[in-house]
Specification:
The chain is of the alpha/beta class and about 900 residues long. The protein is about 45% helix and about 15% strand. The protein folds into seven domains: about 10-190, inorganic pyrophosphatase (n-terminal core), CATH 3.90.1640.10; about 200-315, Diaminopimelate Epimerase, Chain A, domain 1, CATH 3.10.310; about 320-425, CBS-domain (Roll); about 455-615, Beta Polymerase, domain 2, CATH 3.30.460; about 615-695, Hydrophobic Seed Protein; about 710-820, Methane Monooxygenase Hydroxylase, Chain G, domain 1 (Up-down Bundle), CATH 1.20.58; about 840-885, no CATH class. The N and C termini lie far apart (about 105 Å). Belongs to the tRNA nucleotidyltransferase/poly(A) polymerase family.
Length: about 900
């Protein structure tokens, strides 16, 4: 019988994906050097060239073992390279089920839904995983033999397509050069992988890329790289060509000092520049798309400066507005309807229409087809263009160059700019015109006509120091942990909205709102599991709430966009990017985000000028139809304006008026209006907001009889003083602050009108009773007390004891009688919690028969206690017995 193979029990096992390629093989070999005494498991057979190569040539390098020979009971660590997907592994299934197993992952692929969660995960977007491993070997100064270098280099060459794939990075070139310096055998590599580059070229190509700079000349990007070579570089032209193709460069000049000469190689794809003529001025020559020169007796910096001068001399204002514009410009006067604007854009097949003043024909701005169609969709097509156009202050002249045009359209976020000369519109340049030009000339394009914000580039700034100084250690650690979780899952995470706004305003931060570019619920589930938190999921909106043991909450949402099927309806939600997520928000001050991922931690992202508006103290809407689609934003604009002392921007104010004029708020459900009113009345001083609501006529929209009077304003001020007194003395008491102001808002209105208002706001039954009926009762009760005063302490007690805190505070604010106010205040501070120490069981135990008499006796005890008597149970029982005896109850 054959002998049974001896079992081994390694502490560390290394593996990779099935059908391993050279990158997997090279990465496993590198991992073996990082984890001494480890064992490698090849997951399934390799291709024939791999098997033959390793069996006959390099197999001795690997400490391999058949999974059947391994006893995993002693294995503590599993190292996985070049994959994170469980279904691509073989031979380690049982090991993966082992509890407390340490899993280290090294990979260069993007994340997948079924990926393994590693204890340690090092993933970089390189062209090969072997590149990552080589970086680690170099950092740890681990020696590599020539055979090992050959195997690892094979992985990089193969997975980068000999450095031609788009995924190839400078790091791949750098590590390949390192492996060649370690003795990697290129003849062996060439026999297994189609080779394209010569030995020493990899190092020089890497250096040229590292030294590359960009010079902008009249809107054209020119790339230059200048290096000094220690020896002659053969076939420099092919290296330059490789860089142009790999980096997708329009125009590239390579300057290399070799010996006493500066060699200049140029490649070009732009019509506006002739590199042959430029290098001809340096003693060389060639065509407009390819040229070379050798310059003697000049230093490398001198040649570089002269080259830039020649480029600047040749590139004139060839990309000017006159050549880019569409002419004639299609316009519409501001008095025309939005339906007319839409039909005009359809007729001419354009997406943007210039808006002119009816009388002077001065340029005012523009309206887009997207906006016009939304207005028509919401049955508001008869509204004039002047109410919904986008103001446009940017113009260009016929001679304006591309740099100026790009600045106006891209940097200043203009959909269109008119081309004007002597106040006459000669033509128009739209984003589409610019987009087509950039595509035609192979420029990097970040624009799209599919959405209004697609071409926006964010302003960024580092606010890490602000986070450090403004936040306590608990919150700083929390944000760091969130970023680390994002790194582990391979998703971008941001803290957004009010958190960032309040951070910039140096206001107290109450909420932590996180947005994930990916599955928000999956992220929240992972984080909650990692930190032992509770989790509440809301799958309809793909959001979740993480709840820590101490009650701290973190709201997590997937980056999403929203659209509205009808005005005032709830939004329809779809997953999207952080840019689109911020674009769906209400005001610019709420569109700020801070990246939490490790590499970009503390980077503030501002697409819509939110930082500027925070600084200028202005509330500005993002989209022209925001108040039509969601009229609750009108209330929020007023709330933020009041809370922060900001002003509402002129355009935003006009859009609020337009929305009210077309009846947008009337379509809102009462519950949504009530929710916004609660927030406004819950502010520290809501009076300015209420006054602004009245200025816009919002109160009339809620009920035609509502009117802000001087009496109401005075009552609001009195409520403010009352609540300040209460909150100072009773900071721990919880009560609905908004309810006190709401009762003050409706003070004096008849019961019938109050009920109509409550019904319009869809008050729940219990709240309607508390705020309408109790408000009416409170007003009656305060009049009774004022009319009857002075009265006994007992009478005050029995008149007030059944009123809730908000009603008592309302009465305190309502009365103008100082004696009555003191009496109510005394009740609130000293008497409202007075209760008998004994109960029905105690009365029964002394022989008093149960019945209504119990209430009578207990109330009598309260009357005595209000006079400072009966301070113990014994005294109360004695009093009860005496009272019962006197009244023949026992």
């Amino acid at each position: 019988m054959p002998q049974k193979k001896q079992q081994i029990s390694p502490k560390t096992v290394i593996t990779s994906h099935i059908n391993s390629d050279f990158d997997a093989i090279g990465a496993m070999l590198a991992a073996q050097k990082l984890y001494p005494e480890s064992v490698i498991i090849f997951p399934g057979s390799q291709e024939k060239n791999l098997r033959d190569f390793f069996v006959h040539s390099m197999g001795y390098l690997f400490n391999m073992a058949d999974p059947a020979r391994i006893d995993f009971s002693g294995t503590q660590r599993l190292v996985i390279v070049d994959t994170r997907q469980k279904n691509r592994l073989s031979g380690v299934e049982l090991l993966l089920e082992k509890p407390n197993l340490i899993i280290d992952i090294y990979d260069h692929h993007p994340s997948f839904p079924d990926e393994i969660q590693g204890t340690y995960d090092l993933s970089k977007p390189y062209g090969a995983t072997t590149t990552i491993m080589c970086e680690l070997l170099r950092e740890k100064k681990i020696d590599i033999s020539s055979d090992e270098a050959t195997v690892m280099a094979l992985g990089i060459y193969e997975d980068t397509g000999n450095f031609t794939y788009a995924s190839t990075t400078p790091a791949d070139f750098e590590q390949a050069g390192f492996l060649i310096s370690c003795g990697a055998c290129l003849s062996t590599i060439s026999s297994l992988v189609v080779k394209e580059m010569k030995t020493e070229q990899v190092t020089w190509l890497n250096e040229l890329i590292n030294e590359m700079t960009t010079v902008a000349v009249n809107g054209i990007q020119i790339h230059l790289s200048a290096i000094a070579a220690s020896n002659y570089i053969p076939d420099l032209a092919s290296i330059v060509q490789k860089i142009v193709r790999m980096e997708n460069l329009d125009c590239f000049f390579a300057l290399v000092l070799m010996g006493a000469k500066v060699h200049v190689i140029a490649r070009n794809r732009l019509h506006e520049i002739d590199v042959g003529k430029i290098l001809g001025s340096l003693g060389g020559g060639g065509h407009f798309y390819a040229a070379s020169a050798k310059v003697e007796n000049q230093t490398l910096p001198q040649v570089e400066m002269r080259l830039i001068e020649l480029i600047q001399q040749q590139i004139k204002h060839v990309r000017v507005a006159k050549k880019l514009m569409s002419s004639p410009a299609i316009t519409i006067t501001a008095d025309k309807s939005c339906l007319d604007a839409r039909q005009r854009m359809i007729r001419y097949n354009i997406n943007t229409l210039l808006v002119l003043d009816l009388q002077t024909h001065e340029y005012l701005g523009y309206i887009t087809r997207h906006v016009a169609e939304k207005i028509v969709h919401h049955k508001l097509g008869d509204q004039p263009v002047v109410d919904y156009f986008e103001p446009g202050s940017q113009r260009v002249r016929l001679s304006s160059d591309l740099a100026e045009i790009e600045k106006k359209i891209i940097d200043l976020k203009q959909r269109v700019v008119p081309v004007m000369e002597n106040r006459i519109i000669s033509g128009v340049i739209t984003r589409t015109d610019l987009l087509n030009f950039l595509v035609e000339h192979n420029r990097e394009v970040v624009l799209s006509e599919q959405t209004d914000i697609s071409g926006l580039k964010p302003r960024t700034k580092y606010v890490g120091n602000r986070l450090k100084h403004r936040l306590d250690q608990r919150v700083r650690t929390l944000l760091s942990d969130i970023g680390n979780a994002g790194d582990t899952l391979g998703v971008e995470v941001f803290v957004v909205g009010g958190f960032v706004r309040d951070l910039m305003l140096e206001q107290p931060i109450e909420d932590v709102d996180v947005v994930v570019e990916g599955d928000g619920i999956a992220f929240a589930s992972y984080f909650a599991s990692l930190h032992h938190c509770r989790l509440h999921q809301h799958r309809k909106f793909n959001t979740a709430v993480i709840i820590f043991e101490d009650g701290l909450k973190v709201d997590v949402a997937s980056a999403r966009l929203e659209y509205y099927a009808t005005p005032a309806a709830l939004p329809v939600v779809e997953n999207s990017s952080i840019k689109m997520d911020l674009a769906r928000r209400d005001f610019t001050i709420n569109t700020l985000a801070i990246s939490l991922n490790t590499e970009t931690f503390g980077t503030l992202i501002d697409y819509f000028g939110g930082v500027r508006d925070v600084k200028d103290k202005i509330v500005r809407i993002i989209h022209n139809l925001s108040f039509i689609e969601d009229p609750t934003r009108i209330f929020r604009a007023i709330k933020f304006s009041n809370r922060f002392g900001f002003r509402i921007g002129k355009v935003t104010a006009n859009l609020i008026k337009n929305a009210l004029n077309v009846g947008a708020v009337k379509n809102l459900s009462g519950l949504r209006v009530l929710s916004e009113l609660k927030q406004i009345f819950g502010e520290e001083n809501p009076l300015p907001a209420v006054q602004t609501m009245a200025d816009y006529g919002l109160d009339k929209v809620i009920h035609h009889d509502l009117k802000l009077t001087d009496t109401t304003c005075a009552l609001f001020e009195s409520v403010g003083k009352t609540l300040a007194w209460h909150d100072l003395l009773y900071a721990d008491d919880v009560y609905p602050r908004w309810a006190v102001y709401f009762m003050a808002w409706l003070h004096g209105y008849p019961f019938a009108v109050s009920i109509q208002i409550a019904d319009r706001l869809m008050f729940p039954v219990k709240e309607k009773e508390r705020l309408i009926e109790q408000r009416i009762k409170s007003e009656h009760r305060i009049r009774l007390i004022e009319k009857s005063y002075p009265v006994s302490t007992q009478q005050i007690y029995w008149w007030l004891i059944h009123f809730k805190t908000e009603c008592l505070l309302f009465m305190l604010a309502l009365t103008k009688n100082e004696s009555v106010r003191k009496a109510i205040s005394h009740f609130y501070t000293h008497q409202r919690k007075i209760k008998p120490l004994i109960g029905g069981k105690d009365l029964k135990s002394v022989g008093i028969k149960p019945g209504p008499v119990y209430t009578t006796i207990l109330n009598k005890i309260i009357d005595e206690k209000l006079d400072g008597k009966l301070n113990t149970m014994e005294e109360e029982i004695k009093f009860a017995k005496h009272y019962a005896f006197e009244n023949k109850l026992i």
